[in-house]
């Protein structure tokens, strides 16, 4: 039986573009170009490495988001994933990490899996909590924030680098794994891969397909909510200190005035 890997990918606003909030204080995705979250590319790449060692491995990329989120799926397919699953429903607008983990768990149960791979966080929210939530909902082991990953005899092992220590972790499949941007170089899609992605299957699901009530997701079902947002203040002219023997004193006085010391 082939190994089934599911990679969770997210469609996010381009970090280099002018991002802002809509009136309901959700990220305005209509006026900003989107793309596959860069950190999720490392998860796709790790799945491809597993398949290189075991060619029978099947890789499914799954995303939750609006119609344009299919671009994230297509990018993963062009990198080498075999098929995609896109969960789209108007009632999902404003869903937070808790609701997203519910939708992903239901979708992944429907797909079938042995190993779930995620990026360390998304480049829009940056929370990094979804892999743990997903593992809890599915009732499987989690090994997160790995900078090195290997799979052998149904056991996933990896290294987690912390500020003061390095941990070696292992878990038997099925499991949820998240990888950092230090886990390797995410490969670029080849022209052949881009053309092949157009013919790969992408299944579309909605909340009814997953037996999820709309009250459990969306803005009303979210456990977290943005109460206030303001534009970042414009940069002001800095203070230039000319050191003529009193530079340190002038710097200390400036920091004290700013209440930084």
Automatic annotation (TrEMBL):
Question: Which keywords does UniProt give here?
Answer: Electron transport, Transport
Q: Which residues form the Electron transfer flavoprotein alpha/beta-subunit N-terminal domain?
A: 24-214
Pfam families in alphabetical order: ETF
Q: Partners and quaternary state? A: Heterodimer of an alpha and a beta subunit.
Family as reported in the entry's similarity comment: Belongs to the ETF beta-subunit/FixA family.
Q: What does this protein do?
A: The electron transfer flavoprotein serves as a specific electron acceptor for other dehydrogenases. It transfers the electrons to the main respiratory chain via ETF-ubiquinone oxidoreductase (ETF dehydrogenase).
Q: What is this protein called?
A: Electron transfer flavoprotein subunit beta
State the taxonomy lineage. Answer: Bacteria, Bacillati, Actinomycetota, Actinomycetes, Kitasatosporales
């Amino acid at each position: 039986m082939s190994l089934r890997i599911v990679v969770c990918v997210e469609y996010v606003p381009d970090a280099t573009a002018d991002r802002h909030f809509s009136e309901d204080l959700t990220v305005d995705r209509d006026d900003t170009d989107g793309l596959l979250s860069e950190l999720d590319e490392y998860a796709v790449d790790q799945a491809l490495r597993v398949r290189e060692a075991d060619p029978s491995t099947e890789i499914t990329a799954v995303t939750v988001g609006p119609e344009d989120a299919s671009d994230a799926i297509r990018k993963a397919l062009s990198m080498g994933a075999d098929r995609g699953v896109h969960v789209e429903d108007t009632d999902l607008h404003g869903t937070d990490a808790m609701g997203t983990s519910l939708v992903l768990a239901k979708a992944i149960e429907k797909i079938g899996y042995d190993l779930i791979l995620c990026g360390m966080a998304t480049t829009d929210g940056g929370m990094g909590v979804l892999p743990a939530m997903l593992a809890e909902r599915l009732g499987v082991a989690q090994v997160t924030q790995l900078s090195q990953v290997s799979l052998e005899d149904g056991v996933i092992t990896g290294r987690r680098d912390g500020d003061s220590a390095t941990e070696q972790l292992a878990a038997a499949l099925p499991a949820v794994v998240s990888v950092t941007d230090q886990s390797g170089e995410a490969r670029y899609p080849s022209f052949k891969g881009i053309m092949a992605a157009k013919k790969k299957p992408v299944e579309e699901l909605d909340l009814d397909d997953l037996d999820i009530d709309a009250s459990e997701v969306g803005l009303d079902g979210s456990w977290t909510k943005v109460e206030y947002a303001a534009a970042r203040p414009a940069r002001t002219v800095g203070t230039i200190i000319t050191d003529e023997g009193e530079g340190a004193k002038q710097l200390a006085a400036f920091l004290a005035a700013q209440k930084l010391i």
